[in-house]
Task: structure prediction
Amino acid sequence: MVKAVVGANWGDEGKGKITDMLAENADIVIRFQGGANAGHTIINEYGRFALHTLPSGVFYSHTTSIIGNGVALDIPKLFKEINEVTSQNVPTPKILVSDRCQIVMPYHVLFDAYEEERLGGKSFGSTKSGIAPFYSDKYAKIGFQVSELFDEDVLREKVERVCALKNVLLEHLYHKDPIDPAELLNTLHEYRDMVAPYVCDVSLFLDKAIKEGKTILLEGQLGTLKDPDHGIYPMVTSSSTLAAYGAIGAGIPPYEIKQIVTVCKAYSSAVGAGAFVSEIFGDEAQELRVRGGDKGEFGATTGRPRRMGWFDCVASKYGCRMQGTTDVAFTVLDVLGYLDEIPVCVGYELDGEVTTDFPVTAKLEKCKPVLKTLPGWKCDIRGIKKYEDLPENCRGYIEFIEKEIGYPITMVSNGPSREDIIYRESPLSK
Ligand code: GDP
Result:
């Protein structure tokens, strides 16, 4: 049985917590896209962790954690993370890395920073982890697969060829020092020795696991609105954030993905530039930012303050639809307990008309939010275990949003820990 855990919005919805929670009953957790540019925050009996590359299953000794072929693998960062986890007394995790996974090269990180510098005020707000240059090279067919590290002749020739190309850009576009091919080759030898014990034919491994009836979790990074095709292009990430891509980025048949848990946060937050219709500013935003998540809404990787907004039914309905949602996990609801009234964005006004269908980017820039105000519940809901025990206005908020987005909210997260979860029968479940 394969399940996907993905985001409906701009990322930071709390996928890490939901994956960590579902991983208790999973044999395998696999990352299928993205790189070390975003982070998941996980709080459990070992402490508080910000994972960037490792799947959220690493804390259980019964799970195998896999880096799938769709991931942008930064080898030194992976090892730094493994060390961080094991130094906090987590048992050494079982990790596999796909032999078809491609490697984030040191120059990808440099190019990311140089390009943002060149663009100045028009930059994308990249985390400068090398992700965009990495995926550009992958599709330009000059990326390095893990398997290529083990073929010295191929590697040497390719390093020479790629350096010649990169050095033209470094010297003439960015006016920076060129790359020394011999030095790069040495770095790649180090990478090879680091990754060697973990390399695996992952699709074959998963084929066997599926046949044996194992439970496999596909862990997504970011959310629908950051998808390069279906998101707010060009303010998107460079790999698909959709559950459908899980089949490709892990190497499994698409029809094996039986459950798609789409994580939706009870309010909105976003990082980087781009249209954000329900965005709020000033003191109102700052209060939500500081109270948000488990330690405020600041980037797990960058520490940057996140942009804040009210829950956006239009974006979330679309976000759930593009994921192919079977279940919505509605998270961080406890944070809203301080509000007397809670505005929710129920439509977009575009050229004098109201729509509930998420438009393309050029139109999105012109949309104004249509807000509806719901009553708050004014209390702390952490610790509540049963849906019926939630305050009436809180249930009202959940049920209103469920109706607007049209997908069943079957899990409600009312705190950052694994135990802070309320399962619920939804009238919309099939
Ligand atoms: P991810 O990238 O989707 O995994 O999300 P992040 O980890 O960046 O952001 C989610 C933040 O919310 C983290 O700090 C979590 O610890 C926290 N979190 C997750 N679920 C809940 C919840 O139900 N309540 C509260 N208060 N915090 C939560």
Remarks:
- Residues 180 and 373 are 60 Å apart (CA to CA).
- The mean pLDDT is 94.
